[in-house]
Predict the structure.
Amino acid sequence: MDISARLARSFPLALAVVAFAPHLAFADPNGVSCAEGKFGDHIENGHVVGDAGSIFAAKKAVYWVDVANPGAPTAVTLVWTVDGREVQRQSLDVGQSPHWHTWGMRPLGGGTKVDVVVLDASGATLKQDSIGSVP
């Protein structure tokens, strides 16, 4: 097989390596990530329960997060914004686990829209989420 045929056959593999290499080269094995986040109005058996209707009827929101932490125990911060105004920052302890479940709660008063940003210990955003009242 001549060189041009070898190059043509190996090109798709080389392209795949180049496409994925940045993700592999810069992956932080000690980094914290947020696999999932959900709103609800209460916790049952370690999981959040409720929907937009129940949250705004109860005038409180619970935000549940599933955090992957391969490293030492740390904390994440929930930044709560109600109707466009930051109202609270909650620090939540996170142990070493591929699925550490934790949650925060916030009274809403008469608020109609809630935003939560999950930050790691360095202040980097892991997840953003929002929910609004049902008409």
